[in-house]
Amino acid sequence: MKKLLLGDFAVARGAWEAGVSVAAAYPGTPSTEITEELARYDDVYSEWSPNEKVALEVGIGASIRGVRAIVSMKHVGLNVACDPLFTASYTGVNGGLVIAVADDPSVFSSQNEQDTRLTAVSAQVPVLEPSDSMEAKEFAKLAFELSERYDTPIILRLTTRVAHSQSLVELGERVVPAAKPYERNIAKYVMMPANARVKHTVVEERMQKMSQDANALPINRIEEGSKDLGIICSGGVYEYVKEALPEASVLKLGMVYPLPYDLIKKFAGSVKRCIVAEELAPHIETLVKAQGIAVEGKNIFPRCGEFSANLIRRCVLGQQSAAEPANVPARPPVLCAGCPHRGVFYVLSKLKLNVLGDIGCYTLGAVPPLGSMDAVVCMGASIGMTIGFDKADPEAHKHSVAVIGDSTFIHSGITGLIDAVYNKAKITVIILDNRTTGMTGHQNHPATGKTIKNEPTYELDLAEVCRAVGVPNVRTVDPADLAATEAAVREEVAKDEVSVIIAKRPCALLTKRLYSGFKVNENCKKCKACLKLGCPAIVNGENGVTIDVSLCTECGLCKSVCKFGAIEPIGGGKE
Q1: What positions does the entry give for [4Fe-4S] cluster 1 binding (predicted)?
Q2: b vs e for 518-532, b when ≥16 Cβ sit within 10 Å of the residue's Cβ?
Q3: Which residues contact 189 (CB under 8 A, 6 or more apart)?
Q4: Are strands 354-356 and 400-405 parallel, antiparallel or unpaired?
Q5: Can you give the pLDDT at residue 444?
């Protein structure tokens, strides 16, 4: 049976067919759908972990105990998981351990554009890279086999285009291998210095053997074509190469680390011109050149952004395609109509405060007209950066706040808050609690009271967590109440100690109401104060301001900021 599947869904299917028992992840586009799909299988334990480090530790534990486990994350999530990753390379596995990591070339939904293959080289962890959904499924299955055969975690690297594109997949049956017996082995699993020194040698020997064996691995293959041009490629780039250069010889690499150097040397010697086509870093090119093999690469290709068939044709042949898309007007993302974060950012903008922000849909508070975000670095950094502001300038707390989402606070904000209390920082933290992990598609987290399978569980009380770590001032406000929100911010930033404001209101997209919307009446003075909210439902047209009722969620912010009573509801909402 064949089925059209997203690359992420195909990875999940492959893991299921391979008999995976445990799946753990923290949501991160473009990897989120892997674990969401696995949660649909009742015979797989799946969880949303508080962060990627914990998720990988869960996977490592399951592996040591003897079952197959998959841990999924995006590229920046791998940064969070690096601590256990680097040591798991030394300990090896018992049951197969696969880490699915989705990179984001062209930075569609991330704060940076990094290459997981470079992290894998540093950690000495092998990497497989599929080109389409069918390969995503098969490579996931192969990854478990290789993990157990070579006693190592395996990274399955995807990119946005492969993760979120669909192609036909041949479905198979689930085969669950017998759980491997757990045997206490201190020399293998306890990484104290004496054991680690021995295991480092084992890791180096393992990578050399895998490199040699990779020469005969079927996922690394030569596709014969013209001897005038040879292309070495992998992943989604392979599909672009086949479209742009159909006559060229191609060496398709399914394992991108360690590399099959004998196969590469044979291929490079069989063509007049050999080029490595790879997105982002010159990973393959650098390793191949280090072996004395002459290839081209980043001398003709860009180091940044996604590739395309047109780009490859242009870089290799100097040809401009007639089908090259014309420039289209930019459509920057904005906070949704009715987003509960809008009221907070409106207040912060009005008060002209410095805002140290964080990772989430609320990062869009940086977009005009709100323009209320001074810095964003990584998950949880808002609190640490605000502490830095305070320590650099004792008066900073009077004009600076940290803003962090509820899921992000749990992910990596709690430790920053502990630091603030412990080191007597005078900062105000605003937790934007919209009751979900909104940016990646509304996943549950520990403060929603539901698991990944929507089963009821303990609901973490964020206010009590803040009090438990020693925050003396904790208050909750409804961000739709602009007056109360502004009063809370003014009062808390004036204090000479740590304070937390929890702006609590569910994401507008979680409601199931039918809205009639708001309208602008004859009292409008065309002052355009409502436009400062940046709400996509408010339109400034030739005849003045109007409200698009198809977008309006009746949050009431526009009514609150209008001093002339020019905005009123059309009618009551219906359940």
Answers
A1: 524, 527, 530, 562
A2: bebeeebeeeeebeb
A3: 64, 91
A4: parallel
A5: 93
The two beta strands, 2-6 and 166-170, are antiparallel
82-91 and 193-213 are packed helices; what angle lies between their axes, rounded to 10 degrees? 80
**Which residues are paired to 469 by β-bridges?**
none
Please return the burial class of 328, using the count of CB atoms within 10 Å of its CB with bins 0-12, 13-18 and 19+.
exposed
Nearest Cα to 211, choosing from 160, 268, 265, 145? 265
Confidence of residue 322 (pLDDT cuts 50, 70, 90): low
Question: How many of the other CB atoms lie within 10 Å of CB of 295?
Answer: 20
Q: At what angle do helices 116-123 and 82-91 cross, to 10 degrees?
A: 40
Answer yes or no: are the C-beta atoms of 377 and 404 closer than 8 Å: no
User: Taking a C-beta distance cutoff of 8 angstroms, is the pair 63, 94 a contact?
Assistant: yes
Please say whether the beta carbons of 403 and 355 come within 8 A. yes
What integer is the mean pLDDT of 337-341?
94
Asked whether 357 and 405 are in contact (CB, 8 A), the reply is no
Q: Which residues are annotated as a binding site for [4Fe-4S] cluster?
A: 524, 527, 530, 535, 552, 555, 558, 562
Residue pLDDT, tens place only, 48-95: 999 999 999 999 999 999 999 999 999 999 999 999 999 999 999 999
| Type and span of the H or E element at 492 | helix 482-493
Q: Provide the pLDDT for residue 575.
A: 36
Question: What pLDDT score was predicted for residue 542?
Answer: 86
Query: Quick one: which of 521, 520, 519, 514 has its CA closest to 553?
Result: 514
Instruction: Indicate if the pLDDT at residue 572 is higher than 70.
Output: no
pTM (predicted TM-score): 0.94
Please report which residue ranges of 4-67 form alpha helices under DSSP H: 7-17, 32-38, 52-65
Partners of 5 in beta bridges: 167
Average pLDDT over residues 455-463: 97
Question: Token pair for residue 434?
Answer: 């919209």
Backbone angles phi, psi at 524, to 5 degrees: -60, 130
Numbered residues of the known binding site: 524, 527, 530, 535, 552, 555, 558, 562
